[in-house]
Amino acid sequence: MNQDYSAFDHDTLNKMAEEAFSDYYRLATAPITTPSKKNLAPLAAATQKYLDICDALEASSATHKAGA
């Protein structure tokens, strides 16, 4: 998956991180009585998306602070 988020500005990445976390949290807290790969795949994808955005945000923060 690992989409490249480096083209987005710092503020956009912040908003994207909030949305990605919301998706992750919704999936992570949904009641699942019989966990399976089918049920866990969307959670894994949402987790990875959030982590990728956080990595880009961290890299952007260094640039954002240097420019401030």
Topology of this protein?
Elements: H1 10-28, H2 37-67
Helix pairs in contact: 1-2
Question: What is the C-alpha radius of gyration, as a whole number of Å?
Answer: 14 Å
The amount of beta strand, in percent, is under 5%
Low-confidence stretches: none
Taken from the alpha-carbon principal axes, the silhouette is elongated
Structural class of the secondary elements?
A: mainly alpha
Would you give an account of this structure?
This protein has 68 residues and is mostly helical. 74% of the residues lie in helices and 0% in strands. The chain is built from 2 helices and no strands. Helix 1 (10-28) packs antiparallel against helix 2 (37-67). The longest helix is centred in the last third of the chain and has 31 residues, at 37-67.
Primary descriptors:
single chain, 2 helices
Short description:
The protein is an all-alpha fold.
